[in-house]
Amino acid sequence: MLNTHLPEFRPVSYSRVTLTELMIPSYANFGGKIHGGILLSLMDKVAYAAASKHAGNYCVTVSVDGVNFLQPVEVGELVSLLASVNYVGRTSLLVGIKVIAEDVRSGSVKHTNTSYFTMVAKDDSGRPTAVPGLTLETPEDSRRFLEAIKRREFRERNKAEFDNALSALAVHQEMYLLQQERCQIVY
Ligand SMILES: CC(C)(COP(=O)(O)OP(=O)(O)OC[C@H]1O[C@@H](n2cnc3c(N)ncnc32)[C@H](O)[C@@H]1OP(=O)(O)O)[C@@H](O)C(=O)NCCC(=O)NCCS
Question: Which positions fall inside the HotDog ACOT-type domain (predicted)?
């Protein structure tokens, strides 16, 4: 049951957010590139903004998928994070975030990563609360919604398989795997 102040559905465009930030020297690591943690924090912020706007309530981050930094980000670049709600469940939302970095002198733009943040809306007492459904306004919106369903199915299948593999793990029977890796056993 939705709060009375919330509509039954909200369009994807209602909560689409772009956050742009200049990469200043204090964001750099010892190698002179931008810390991954700075980008993660910006991604969390923009995911929060998009999810909370759609939900009409504060949201919390539950899980993060697909964070791969494909290319380094340099000091002086203008980073933009483009976020939109791709999927909604009952109380959860999946926010897709595309991160691009622009060299302000040449104008060249690189795509550094695309990640997916699962957020859950909370009510005033901190309990998960229902979010409006999503109005899909373009074929792209439908593709993203379907992709999110597939991603969730895939993750659940993988998790079940991984949990089985872990519960069946007998270290003494699988020592041969360690022998093929770059480690040494000293006990
Ligand atoms: C996420 C949280 C709300 C789940 O609480 P819960 O009592 O298990 O609630 P529910 O089982 O009703 O799950 C709520 C929703 O979260 C989803 N969810 C729960 N765990 C999840 C996970 N690991 N990955 C993806 N979705 C998850 C559920 O599928 C459900 O979605 P739906 O309502 O759209 O179907 C709770 O674990 C929490 O508050 N975690 C802390 C989050 C936080 O504070 N983050 C900030 C970083 S410190």
Answer: 13-125
CATH number of 9-136: 3.10.129.10
Q: Per-residue confidence of the chain (187 residues) as pLDDT tens digits?
A: 677 689 999 999 999 999 999 999 999 999 999 999 999 999 999 999 999 999 999 999 999 998 888 899 999 999 999 999 999 999 999 999 999 999 999 999 999 999 999 999 999 999 999 999 999 999 999 999 999 999 999 999 999 999 999 999 999 999 999 999 999 999 9
In ligand 1, which atom is closest to the CA atom of 91? 33
Quick one: which atom of ligand 1 is closest to the CA of 92? 34
For 166, 176, 179, 181, the CA distances from 184, given in Å and listed in that order, are 22, 12, 8, 9
Q: Which helix (H) or strand (E) segment is 144 a member of?
A: helix 139-167
- Give the DSSP H/E element, type plus range, for residue 100: strand 92-102
**What are the domain boundaries of the chain?**
9-136
The protein residue whose alpha carbon is closest to atom 12 in ligand 1 is: 128
